[in-house]
Amino acid sequence: MNLAYVTTQARGATDRLLSAVAERLEAEGVRLAGVVQTNTECADNAHCDMDLRVMPTGEVIRISQSLGAGARGCRLDPGELERAVGLVMGALGNGLDLLIVNKFGKHEADGRGFRPLIAEALAQDIPVLLGVNGLNEEKFLDFTEGAAEKLEPEIGRLVQWMRRVLAERSQAA
Known about the structure:
The structure is a single chain. This protein is α/β, with parallel strands linked by helices. 38% of the residues lie in helices and 23% in strands. It contains 6 helices and 7 strands; from the N terminus they run E-H-E-E-E-H-E-H-H-E-H-E-H. It has helices at residues 13-27, 78-89, 106-109, 115-123, 137-144, 155-172, and strands spanning 3-6, 32-41, 48-55, 60-62, 98-104, 128-132, 149-150. Strand 2 (32-41) and strand 3 form a beta hairpin. Helix 1 (13-27) crosses helix 6. The longest helix has 18 residues, at 155-172. The chain is globular and about 50 Å long.
């Protein structure tokens, strides 16, 4: 099983890192599926809009919702998140080299969101690279039974991991 994850501390750093890795791997011809996130600051400066770019289609889905001034609840739009999951699920089994998921977050920690898709990709022997926030790392490690490899949050390290996985898979074939 080829499963790796990255955790960063700075707000939005994991999203920027995985987006950069996806762009680099796509430019090298690696066949990707999954999602990467872009955050756009809003005028109120307290929140941002969260958009997922679905790979390989390129469709962009806004997964945040405006709850109004003073709202404190979770801004994630679970319906749009599940729509993104469905689009990515449709790409599995098409000769993919890698599944990238921007975050193993609260929904995944609770068994929803991209969690079933991650399990399906691994069952199909598709390598998985994802971001994990510190709040959910323990639940992620429980889910993976400790089989995930934690990588340094550097583009070069993530690309190097992918190249190693691709080389091992081609040797095994």
